[in-house]
Amino acid sequence: MTIRSSIVAATAAGIIAVGMLSTVSAASAEVAVRTPVPAVDPAVPAKMQTAVFAGGCFWGVQGVYQRVKGVTSAVSGYANGAANTANYDTVSGGETGHAEAVRVTYDPRVVSYGKLLQVYFSVVADPTRLNAQGPDHGTQYRSALMPTTPAQAQVARAYIAQLNKSGVWKRPIVTRIEPMKGFYPAEAYHQNYLVNNPYSPYIRVNDLPKVKALQSFYPALTRPQPVLVRG
After folding, report:
1. Where does the signal sequence lie (predicted)?
2. Could you say which DSSP state residue 207 is in?
3. Is residue 55 part of a domain?
4. For the chain, which has fewer Cβ within 10 Å, the N-terminal or C-terminal residue?
């Protein structure tokens, strides 16, 4: 069981032990970095687009993209595993093939896929960590992009190549580009988790710094209020 799984279980029971809080506080959050503007980011038809991003715990990934202008929906879920294993308890075992991911629907007239990638690599995830983000470890926490169109795949490949040449990180990028095989929304209690639980130790240590980095790096791209999952 991961640290976060333990917190979910303890929170559900109404108990969070002092030792657990200490463990979370000691966990190292990902460090935001400034990344270059994508060199390849062609315009696409002016209709709503969908993209899927996996970058560790979906609470933080969703919390960031909910605050990006042009994003009309950011749904936490499970990507690239089977439908019958798309639930939190099973995915947490790390053997389903699923990644915790967020399906982002966006208006390309306001924000491009390339800009969403720039946000991803600069504030959402550390692309040099294999099957791990923050205190969480396992294939379900892998850094992965799931393009939904050939154009997105082209931009993703080009940007990763650009970042590898840029020298932003000393270690190689291990973010995967995976074919989109399926996305299944997560349980209701996982949706809007960052917004609903801003005082959670896990959120405060690992995810709120990502939101602050978004606001600092991309103030013109940051929404004043997050777009929430309804129902």
Report:
1. 1-29
2. I
3. yes
4. C
DSSP string, 106-143: E-TTTS-HHHHHHHIIIII--TTSTTEETTEESGGG-E
| Partners of 73 in beta bridges | 105
pLDDT at residue number 185? 98
The CA-CA-CA angle for residues 209, 54, 16, to 5°, reads 55
CA distance linking residue 40 with residue 182, whole number of Å: 26
pLDDT given at position 18: 37
**Is the residue at 75 inside a domain?**
yes
Q: The domain that contains 31 carries what CATH number?
A: 3.30.1060.10
Residue 194 lies in a domain: yes
Give the separation between CA 124 and CA 62, rounded to whole angstroms: 9
Domain count, the chain: 1
Please give the residue range of the domain that contains residue 107: 3-220
Distances, alpha carbon 149 to alpha carbons 49, 50, 88, 146, in Å: 9, 9, 27, 9
Q: Could you confirm whether 230 is annotated as catalytic?
A: no
Catalytic: which of 24, 54, 57, 153?
Answer: 57
The pLDDT of residue 3: 55
**Would you say residue 227 lies in a domain?**
no
The structure tokens listed for 12 are 């559900």
- Averaged over successive runs of 10 residues, the pLDDT of the chain (231 residues) comes to 54 42 49 96 94 98 98 98 98 98 98 98 98 97 98 98 96 97 98 98 98 98 97 74
